[in-house]
Amino acid sequence: MGDTREPVRDTPGKPYRRWVWILALVGTVCAVPLAFLAWGAYSLGQAGREQTVDCGKAMEFARARLPESAVDARCTGTHWQDTLVEVDFRMPAAEAGTWLESAYPKGEPPYSCGKDLCRKASFDEQLYVDVEVAYEDGGTALVHLRAFDV
Predict the structure, then answer these.
(1) CA separation, residue 122 to residues 32, 60, 62, 76, 82 (Å)
(2) What phi and psi, each to the nearest 5 degrees, are found at residue 130?
(3) Global pTM?
(4) d(CA 73, CA 88)
(5) Integer angstrom CA distances of residue 21 from 10, 12, 15
(6) Half-sphere exposure of 35 (CA within 13 A, CB side)
């Protein structure tokens, strides 16, 4: 004797549920890569922008200290694959040479220097520091320090 039951048919609500799940899956599969693309575009847009940084932290990165007699300090940083920190400040010209010697005792003068004093220092070939000192009128010196890692 055969089975007299009628075959089970989809109720009107079941196909709707199936489409909701299919659309949710397709939306997720498409939305995740698009979200990563948007995040990447935003990150690359922010990368490499010069930003003001704390001078204490900038000098710590450059493995030195800001002299106590420093005035008009301005510190900026740029970060993407490498980090670049630039510090500009003024100090008494009479103290500039001693500060430079004490801050970077293993540093050497570069082959050419366009300022009054220059010093290049390298720390384990991972961090490089360039310092230029220009004497100004009135017994002050403008110090420009540039430190970057690789």
Answers:
(1) 43, 15, 10, 20, 15
(2) -120, 130
(3) 0.70
(4) 6
(5) 16, 16, 10
(6) 6
* Three-state secondary structure readout of 84-106: EEEEEEEEEHHHHHHHHHHHCCC
Q: For the stretch 98-125, what's the b/e string if a residue is b when 16 or more beta carbons lie within 10 angstroms of its beta carbon?
A: ebbeebbeebeeeeeeeeebbbebeeee
Report the C-alpha gap between 49 and 63 in whole angstroms: 23
| CA–CA gap between residue 111 and residue 131 (Å, rounded) | 13
Question: Could you give the CA distance from residue 49 to residue 129 in angstroms, rounded to a whole number?
Answer: 20
In the block, tokens 């010093």 appear at 119
> pLDDT tens digits, the chain, 150 residues: what are they?
566 666 655 555 566 677 888 888 887 888 888 888 888 777 776 677 888 999 999 999 999 999 999 999 999 999 878 899 999 999 999 999 999 999 999 999 888 989 999 999 999 889 999 999 999 988 999 999 999 998
Q: Are 112 and 92 in contact (CB under 8 A)?
A: no
